[in-house]
UniProtKB/TrEMBL annotation:
Its cofactor is heme. Residues 1-18 have a biased composition (Polar residues). Residues 1-25 are annotated as: Disordered. Belongs to the truncated hemoglobin family. Group II subfamily. Keywords: Heme, Iron, Metal-binding, Transport. This is Globin. It comes from Salininema proteolyticum. Transmembrane segments: none annotated. It comes from the Bacteria.
Length: 158
């Protein structure tokens, strides 16, 4: 697959306003056949890289940065990594350390509207692009991210 700097975009999922990158065309990393999604995409290292890149993007996003623990962004990155690993078929370390994810409850104290969701998706899209998953894995993960981001919305405000 040839590497390209072009980017596909779509209108914001619920509003049709603005754009969220769908997938940057990049050289996909090779993956083994068989195994869990977690194994197919490269295991812990892939999810560590996604989480680290996501939080680097959060540091640059004025809309998102106030929603995260300023004194523990590295800890937040680790928790995201563990959550994603567990969700995608890896170790259950997240649940062992923190219990059930209860995502809506954990995010309830924060105003999450359309603008926050879209900023989160831009940061996550960049993080996912940094690991260049195979197209079918990228699509599956991205579809989950869009659903999860929309599910976290707790206000109709832009």
């Amino acid at each position: 697959m040839a590497t390209s700097d072009s980017e596909q975009t779509t209108a914001s999922p619920s509003t049709g306003q603005g754009t969220i990158p769908l997938r940057r065309k990049t050289e996909a990393a090779p993956v083994a056949s068989g195994g869990s999604f977690y194994e197919l995409v490269g295991g812990s290292e892939t999810f560590r890289r996604i989480a680290a890149s996501f939080y680097e993007n959060v540091r640059q996003e004025p809309l998102l940065l106030p929603l995260y623990p300023q004194d523990d962004l590295d800890g937040a990155a680790r928790r995201l990594q563990l959550f994603l690993e567990q969700y995608w078929g890896g170790p259950h370390t997240y649940q062992e350390e923190r219990g059930h994810p209860r995502l809506r409850m954990r995010h309830a104290p924060y105003k999450i509207g359309i603008a926050e969701r879209d900023a989160w998706l831009r940061a996550m899209r960049g993080a996912m692009d940094s690991v260049a998953l195979a197209p079918e894995h990228d699509q599956a993960m991205w579809e989950y991210m869009v659903r999860a981001a929309d599910f976290m919305r707790n206000t109709q405000e832009a």
